[in-house]
Amino acid sequence: MEKGSTIKHLLELSVAEKRAFLDSFDMIMSDCDGVVWNFTGPIPGVDHALQTLKDNGKRLAFISNNGMRTMAEYKEKFRKLGVEPEEHDIVHPALTTVKYLKSINMQDAVYCIATEVFKDYLRNAGFTVVDGPNDHIADERVPNGVRIFSEYFSECDGPKVGAVVVDIDVNVSLAHMMKAKCYLQQNRNCLLIAGATDYIIPLDSSMDVIGPGYFIEILERSCGQKALILGKPGQALSEFILEQFHVTQPQRTLFIGDMLPQDMGFGTRCGFQKVLMLSGGTTKEMMLAHTKPEELPNYYANSFADFIQLYKDVANHQ
Questions:
Q1: Predicted TM-score (pTM) of this structure
Q2: How much is the average pLDDT of 265-277?
Q3: What is the DSSP string of the chain?
């Protein structure tokens, strides 16, 4: 695996290397946020680049860690870019979670810390979803706060919970963490499942927000249980992906993303070739300073638009 300082920009390759690279993959799997679009809208040139890749026979699929959008919203965003992937070519963390829970025949309720979009996918699949608390917990001045904690968290009421699912939730609170811990401790067979694992989520080149990774870590450390990761870069997701897309030659798939641990780490886990886009959450300086070789790309590029120039450079030297 390359060290950061030796990784080449796609447009710095020789013409022969560019041609060999373009001939080395049949399928592209790409992240969405920070690669296809960002918080402010589509990334310039991505529509032309995706069409160019399709015109040259490359199959496109999209693997997102963002469970805040519905599948209909994803499809509409792609439609505006002139790309209309089939629904099974968009991998949504909530649907991956549904698939996994069905695969293990989960009959118990699911305590879910996530968006209503995510929870609705679980409900629509027939699972009983428990959430909250949504009411304000009074900060009463009682000795050691004993009554407050015993009333809300000493015994989790409601149906038996067989899985705690954690994904992006802008309303997450300490009360949610305590409730999740209660379920995990009451039922030693209760699963801890994570969707997105990002610690920081970039909105654009100048702004980022805290991701769910820190909250997942709180539960892992407080309960002594490792989460099953159904988002990138989880092993379970890689197994789903290889099966869903019938991947028999992983080296013929190119994975594109903007994050080192989630995207490049996931590409390594799947055995894919990898390109890091500098259009999202990782700068060139961050890539060069990164010390985990399994989370480094094979190549990097400024954005998807570099594929347009890549094909032009090869065509001009036929």
A1: 0.88
A2: 97
A3: ---GGGPEEGGGS-HHHHHHHHTT-SEEEE--BTTTEETTEEPTTHHHHHHHHHHTT-EEEEE---TTS-HHHHHHHHHHTT----GGGEE-HHHHHHHHHHHTT--SEEEEES-HHHHHHHHHTT--EE----SPPP----GGGHHHHHHHHSS--SSPEEEEEE---TT--HHHHHHHHHHHHH-TT-EEEES---SEEEEETTEEEE-THHHHHHHHHHHT-PPEE-STT-HHHHHHHHHHTT-S-GGGEEEEES-IIIIIHHHHHHT-EEEEETTSS--HHHHHH---GGGS-SEEESSTTHHHHHHHHHHTT-
Lowest mean pLDDT segment, chosen from 83-97, 99-113, 115-129: 83-97
In contact, 190 and 136? CB cutoff 8 Å: no
- On the question of pLDDT at 177 being above 80, the answer is yes
Nearest Cα neighbor of 34 from 309, 268, 264 is 264
Q: What percent of the chain has pLDDT over 70?
A: 92
Q: Quick check: 143 pLDDT over 60?
A: no
